[in-house]
Amino acid sequence: MKSETKTCQNCKNKFTIEPEDFDFYNKINVPTPTFCPECRLIRRFAWRNQYFLYPRECDRCGKAMISVFSKDTGLTVYCPPCWWSDKWDGMEYGVDFDPKKLFLVQLRKLLQRVPVMNRFCLYAGLVNSEYTNMVSYLKNCYLVSHSDHNENCAYSAFITHTNDSYDSLMVDKCELCYECVNCRRCFNAFFSIDCQDCHDIGFSRNCIGCSHCFGCTNLRNKQYHVFNKPYSKEEYEEKIRELQPKTLTARRKIQEHVEKLWNKFPQKYMHERKNTNVSGDYIYNSKNARDSYIIADCENCRFCSIVSPGGLKDCYDFTHYTGGELFYEGLQIGDQASRIFFSWFVLSGVREVEYSMFIIGGSNIFGSVGLKKREYCILNKQYPKEEFEILREQIIDQMNTKPYKDKQGNVYRYGEFFPIELSPFGYNETTAYEHFPIAQEEAKVRGYNWKPLRERDYKVTKKSSDLPETIEEVNDSITGEVISCEHEGRCDDQCSTAFKVIPQELQFYRRMSLPVPHLCPNCRYAKRIMWRNPAKLYKRKCQCAGTRSENNLYQNTIVHQHHGSNHCSNEFETTYALGRKEIVYCEKCYQQEVV
Questions:
Q1: Per-residue confidence at 307, pLDDT binned at 50, 70, 90?
Q2: Quick one: which of 287, 264, 254, 184 has its CA closest to 218?
Q3: Mean pLDDT of the chain
Q4: 470-493: buried (b, 16+ CB within 10 Å) or exposed (e) per residue?
Q5: CA gap 512, 125 in Å, rounded
Q6: Are 296 and 281 in contact (CB under 8 A)?
Q7: CA angle, 57 as apex, 85 and 344 as ends, to 5°?
Q8: pLDDT value of position 122
Q9: pLDDT-derived band of residue 138, with 50, 70 and 90 as boundaries?
């Protein structure tokens, strides 16, 4: 079968369906997509609220709780003991399919009625970690999301098997880390990016197997280096005493200096380890995984994102979680699941599920919400196998002949994920806004929900500008203060305008000799994600111009395989957009410089 070029009905851009894509769609018997890959990704992201938590009461027992669903969603939300109990059954909410009404409208009304869980967590594994979401097996964690197996951590996301770390993003098996991004197996690291197997490092980037390094980049198995210059142990220690930033002002000056230094060294065109035939970024231990982003342990997958280790095979257009095969246009699915299409939050050995939400166990489920270990159900009503199959075909026929149309005129026949306008979240609450931000006015034009920022009536007791310069000057009373955020809500980072320092956080700052931050957690997070490349690919050419980089900032250390002064001819897709300051090399040129 030949490639086919189509026009996305949403953004009107061209996209290509390749022969292997047709093979996958034929294998699972679904039509080809009518939205381009990026619009499909945004559509899934718009159903994913990772960070925003709201106080509310359980709609069954009345207990106070924290939820990702605010009161104004209109959803029925249960606390963990109530939702997981046997005291209610999703079948109680079953309704007959009405052929006179659009199927997706009937499903959305069902979602309004059936109880949903307050947060996406494995609650049995949480100890003193209430203010978290999309997590499991946490102890003493606060404002941590999309993370598993961590202890004594706060203000972090995408962290695993990590202890005593704060304000970090995408770290694995780390300890005593602060403001780190995409680091693995690091100890006592701060303000560092893309580092692995390092300890006692600061303000470093792309370092592997290093120790006692400060302000360094692209080093391998080095120690006692400052700004990539080697020192003796004694000289290094003396240098660090001079450079170690005790104040926020000093830290910001060093950050500015090292960022300029980093940009004088080449970066590899993608972040990846132990892969075969992959494309995208932040891909690990995968094979034949294309156009994907932040994934691990994937095989024969395409257009997948935020996939945790655990094994994913033969999946397309899938976002978040792992453990299964043959997923398509799904979100938050896994744990030995199979053949799950156009669905949200489906777990625990489930198979043959379409257009469903909050399904635990079971099989052969179509258009249902909140069912546990059921089979042959449509709109939460159970049928004999033969009747189920007939009604399923009837609904698919209706979806194709009388499709749902969103406010922009996009048509949703069978084969498309849920429309963004039906999401219970405001666009600005979701992962879509984080990766593909738009203004409120544009969201309104597109028909998307928008969550108004809450009125902030915090009674600030201390301005951030009045905070002591060093941690030694801070006393225990700081934990009782309401501190104004330095941005004061004037930024685009969904600033909370004020924040508090929790007791364990203060202990961490003292242990690491760090000044108290002047920004709220939201603003700190926004700055941190700037160091994570976006979920978008650009076609580029290697910037190795022979003996040096194209911009003449970097002098190659050896003669590369493309010979002398010849410009490298390698081309690739990368998340480093054109016009960025980084020098981007292909894998061969990069490896020749750093190995």
A1: very high
A2: 264
A3: 96
A4: bbeebeeebeebebbbbbebebeb
A5: 28
A6: no
A7: 60
A8: 76
A9: very high
Residue 564: predicted pLDDT: 65
pTM: 0.96
Beta bridge partners of 372: 360
| C-alpha closest to that of 174 among 193, 526, 217 | 193
Q: What share of the chain is helix, strand, coil (3-state, %, to 5)?
A: 25, 35, 40
Which of 320, 347, 424 is CA-nearest to residue 107?
A: 424
State the Cα–Cα distance between residues 427 and 433, nearest whole angstrom. Answer: 6
CA–CA separation, 144 vs 50, rounded Å? Answer: 10
End-to-end CA distance of the chain: 42
| Torsion-angle region of 559 (φ positive above 0: left; ψ -120 to 50: alpha; else: beta) | beta
Give the CB-side neighbour count of residue 347, counting CA atoms within 13 A: 11
Q: How many CB atoms lie within 10 A of CB 299?
A: 16
pLDDT at residue number 365: 98
HEC readout, 429-483: HCHHHHHCCCCHHHHHHHCCCCCCCCCCCCCCCECHHHCCCCHHHCCHHHHHCCE
232: tokens are 């003796």
Q: Look up residue 24 and give its DSSP letter.
A: H
Token pair 């879509």 in the structure block, residue: 432
pLDDT tops 80 at residue 447:
yes
CA–CA separation, 168 vs 521, rounded Å?
A: 11
Phi first, then psi: what are they for 455, rounded to 5°?
-65, 125
Angle between helices 103-113 and 385-401 (to 10 degrees): 120
